[in-house]
Amino acid sequence: MAESMQGLKRTHRCGELTAALEGQQVTVMGWVQKNRNKGGLVFVDVRDRSGVIQVVFEEGKTEAGLLEKAAKLRAEYVVAVTGTVEKRSGAVNESLATGEIEIIPEGLRVLSESQTPPFPIEEHTKTREEVRLKYRYLDLRRPDLQRNLMLKSRVMTLTRQFFAEEGFLEVETPMLGKTTPEGARDYLVPSRIHPGCFYGLPQSPQLYKQLLMCAGMDRYIQIARCFRDEDLRADRQPEFTQIDMELSFVDVDDVIEVNERYLSRLFREVLGIEVQLPIRRMTWQEAMDRFGSDKPDLRFGMELTDVSDVVKDCGFGVFTGALDQGGTVRGLNVKGQGAMPRKKIDKLTAFVKDYGAKGLAYVAIQEDGSVKSSFAKFMTEEEMASLIRAMDGEPGDLLLFAADKQKVVWDSLGALRVELGKQLELFDKNAFCFVWITEFPLLEWSEEQNRYVAMHHPFTMPMEEDLPLIDTDPGKVRAKAYDIVLNGNEIGGGSVRIHQDDVQEKMFEVLGFTKEQAYSQFGFLLDAFKYGVPPHAGLAYGLDRLVMLMAGQESIRDVIAFPKVKDASCLMTEAPTPADQKQLEELGLLVKKEEKTADEKSL
Amino acid sequence: MAESMQGLKRTHRCGELTAALEGQQVTVMGWVQKNRNKGGLVFVDVRDRSGVIQVVFEEGKTEAGLLEKAAKLRAEYVVAVTGTVEKRSGAVNESLATGEIEIIPEGLRVLSESQTPPFPIEEHTKTREEVRLKYRYLDLRRPDLQRNLMLKSRVMTLTRQFFAEEGFLEVETPMLGKTTPEGARDYLVPSRIHPGCFYGLPQSPQLYKQLLMCAGMDRYIQIARCFRDEDLRADRQPEFTQIDMELSFVDVDDVIEVNERYLSRLFREVLGIEVQLPIRRMTWQEAMDRFGSDKPDLRFGMELTDVSDVVKDCGFGVFTGALDQGGTVRGLNVKGQGAMPRKKIDKLTAFVKDYGAKGLAYVAIQEDGSVKSSFAKFMTEEEMASLIRAMDGEPGDLLLFAADKQKVVWDSLGALRVELGKQLELFDKNAFCFVWITEFPLLEWSEEQNRYVAMHHPFTMPMEEDLPLIDTDPGKVRAKAYDIVLNGNEIGGGSVRIHQDDVQEKMFEVLGFTKEQAYSQFGFLLDAFKYGVPPHAGLAYGLDRLVMLMAGQESIRDVIAFPKVKDASCLMTEAPTPADQKQLEELGLLVKKEEKTADEKSL
């Protein structure tokens, strides 16, 4: 039976108690972490979000009724304990922040009892994630998840404070917006008042924030919920959160400058880590050439080397064939791995095939300078020697090569580099290595749609010096777009936006939009642009990913209070669920599945 | 043609310029507010969110090309002006914060041109709201709306800062949740991966925040978007924002205490207004009896008087009839309005009919002490005299009476009181008058459903001393619920929650839920309650309404960047819109309307 806490007031959280309070009467409230009964002594550990404190009930010292009550406590009972803080009579517990002290109790109330929980509430649990997610309210009692959510809260508070001090206004933009077929798939919300019509949940507040710039808001910030109805990969959630901002009367450098000061303050105040400013910048082209990735992990080297020129006349058809088709041959020098077993190399070959590569060619330089290679027989010794030289190959090194279209080579060697970095532990796990990637291509050729598509979005500004190329060689046009990358993860990205009618029109033309198509989707923005638009630019961070990295976690689910699983369902609430028939009728909707059943019956 | 701002950097916002900067070179960027051409002088007012600055181009002094360019500027062009701050040569403009100074320009760039806007960008516009909402990006340039959004941003920042300092954690709860048929109508979101299944957008994070307390988060805050698919009345939006909080190990007084400190700091720091603490408290019963409202406007008196006892034996059948049916007779003394014309009284009678009253009985006490009354003929002089005495009636007063069921009398006289308060200007418009309303009834009888329904929600804790009544007289049970009322508006409300299994079960029983029904809707919460629940309580403010009152606005649309209109559509984006056929197919949905058309065709 639950006792009331009437008349009681908590004086401290458990973890706030220190030896400085010795002799003082306190009242703590929390969950029973454990309860040990040892020769007339009952030790009860009480836990709350701040930590754990030991309460010692002692035969002869503690009132008999209290002692009996304490002995009956079980894990996860909620209790209120009033007592006096004393230095521990027994050994100090070094593993506990409050390990020097204990409470000698004068009062105990059981505020709520508990059944035996389905898994113990402890750090570094081995319990399957499915079970933890079903009982998320218990999982969230574990100190590691509590720390994660406390860190996230701190990040959000500090973020808002920083940007408020910098003159950014927090403005809420609508969740029930207009759905557009462009880009990722929207979540739709049927309208009851307008049957057959739908709102779209925002994939980002992009259009609204640009409109706020048109509206003269000057600087905007929002920690905004965003939605994407895509098949979930690891580390994707159907709803996720962006730190979203936009600034008027600025260019690339202004956005970068304020965000560097933000990141520096965030990491200093939350993690006590100094971010070296200015953060290094790298063009997209350089990042791809050197690391095969637009989000390079700079905690380690092992860069890609372009050996196309070296092998262009060699005897190995895989290399020359790729080059003949306009492709490229690049290699990685895996230092000191010349003795890697063939089986392991085969695994790496399987790995790159996921990225479209047909295979990996390798050269293992033995300690005696001789060479084991999958393709030595197709090359002269001289060709091999110059290839090794080009790769800075030394005895004991393993050289890995991919030959294919440029994109395939970048993707597969870029991923392989990161994979090897992890496997070989080439980097400091506690390092935080930032880099800005700039000058992204404006457009990407879509084989599927047989047209150019915007690499960021259709409102991204081309670089002024590349404007003349937009008619002659659109694929070469670079954009005023930038990503901020941390340890190989894109944590944010943005761009300067187009604010000129004529450039925007040209952009839609290149993207193959008719005027009507552009208007039906973005009409209100194009209209707004007729009435005086300030030059503006913005950036958005993925909050969950940022916090995940700051917390040293592997999954964004560990920094989200109530995440969804891969099929976008919630294991705790079981959402989504079938709707009430009445609700569907009000919306003027029919669920097709049921109709099919009816058809089948009529057959 | 738009010029680039490359090479230019804004040094100040327009409103930041002061006489202290005299002689200094500055660059401002903003919109042309107006442009006057006067005998070789061109005066250009440049506006941004901070204010307006005058730029003076002068023949002979300004370079000719610049002067010509300036003369061609039109309203809402976006410009960058570089020049020197000087004391005004002409008269100081007292109505402008920067009225002492002007810029003598050395450079001018037109960053963006503008068509003539559909309405002028000015304060206190007379433009129809429909037009303003269609061009919201222009409407939001008006200084009054800019001030509102800046105020709202300030409120949000300060709110988060205050609660973070008080140990509250900001935790994000899901938007894609489980839909429940109880309460207001949910917005549904069809699932593509689970065809025929739906998420519900949250009406509030109520269940999640209680789960966070179960999870040991201790104190939670979120500025949370909420959704209700109801027919919109004035001042309702389909999506709205709550300042939502929950606290563990607390009772009513703790919640009130921290929120009083919050309100006091908020009003001091944002408006410079001192809130008198502690804020007055009034039970629900007292508020209804004295003001006919659970959100009384205490900026003025004119309280209701119960005259049921006085008139119970009188000859006026309307009074005694109402009393015979268990009703009540109450009156308002409208001081000094004894000479109110009959026509005006008739209008007030029509007014109360909207609240269910059958009419208003009146007594107008003339200056000479004689009486004009709609019912004097049914009463003896003595009865009338004692009625007037009971009402503290004096010569020149107007007494208005309603006789009906208690609820009807409260509603109609409560509304009439507020209406007369406005018409007769009985209160100081700049006053902020807070009151806590406490001890709400736990249950309300629903005629429609022929059962008790929860007045707040099914998790509200009954007052301990009323627990025995829950079986014998459930309508009499008071709840540990509280509202915070400002100037006759409920700006927030909350309650202590049930944290005991047995009380919760009893509650569902009284509400007529079977165990299965309770489980199918709230199973995960009831499950959570088996594993140790801390006593907890919470509160939520309606952010939009709070900011509306702080900004002295009449409509919440004036404090929301992109509001919707009465039919829940957005006049700017035209959302909601018909969905793409492909999107519907992916969701396994059919729009019924189209089906009907097909049927009709087949007839």
UniProtKB/TrEMBL annotation, chains A, B:
Compartments, record wording: Cytoplasm
Any GO molecular function: aspartate-tRNA ligase activity
E.C. number(s) listed in UniProt: 6.1.1.23
GO biological process: aspartyl-tRNA aminoacylation
Reactions accelerated catalytically: tRNA(Asx) + L-aspartate + ATP = L-aspartyl-tRNA(Asx) + AMP + diphosphate
InterPro entries associated with the record: Aa-tRNA-synt_II, aa-tRNA-synth_II, aa-tRNA-synth_II/BPL/LPL, Asp-tRNA-ligase_1, Asp-tRNA-ligase_1_N, Asp/Asn-tRNA-synth_IIb, AspRS_core, GAD-like_sf
Binding sites annotated in the UniProt record for ATP: 228-230, 237, 490, 542-545
Ranges of residues in domain Aminoacyl-transfer RNA synthetases class-II family profile: 149-563
Region listing for Aspartate, in residue ranges: 206-209
Pfam families (UniProt xref): GAD, tRNA-synt_2, tRNA_anti-codon
Gene3D superfamilies found in the cross-reference section: Bira Bifunctional Protein, Domain 2 (3.30.930.10), GAD-like domain (3.30.1360.30), Nucleic acid-binding proteins (2.40.50.140)
Major place of residence: cytoplasm
Residues annotated as site: Important for tRNA non-discrimination: 90
Chain residues that bind L-aspartate: 182, 228, 456, 497
Keywords associated with the record: Aminoacyl-tRNA synthetase, ATP-binding, Cytoplasm, Ligase, Nucleotide-binding, Protein biosynthesis
Enzyme class: ligase
NCBIfam families, per database record: aspS_bact, PRK00476.1
Quaternary data: Homodimer.
Family, per entry: Belongs to the class-II aminoacyl-tRNA synthetase family. Type 1 subfamily.
PANTHER family assigned to the protein according to its UniProt record, in alphabetical order: ASPARTATE--TRNA LIGASE, MITOCHONDRIAL, ASPARTYL/LYSYL-TRNA SYNTHETASE
Functional summary from the UniProt entry: Aspartyl-tRNA synthetase with relaxed tRNA specificity since it is able to aspartylate not only its cognate tRNA(Asp) but also tRNA(Asn). Reaction proceeds in two steps: L-aspartate is first activated by ATP to form Asp-AMP and then transferred to the acceptor end of tRNA(Asp/Asn).
The protein's name: Aspartate--tRNA(Asp/Asn) ligase
Organism (species): Mordavella massiliensis
Origin organism lineage: Bacteria, Bacillati, Bacillota, Clostridia, Eubacteriales
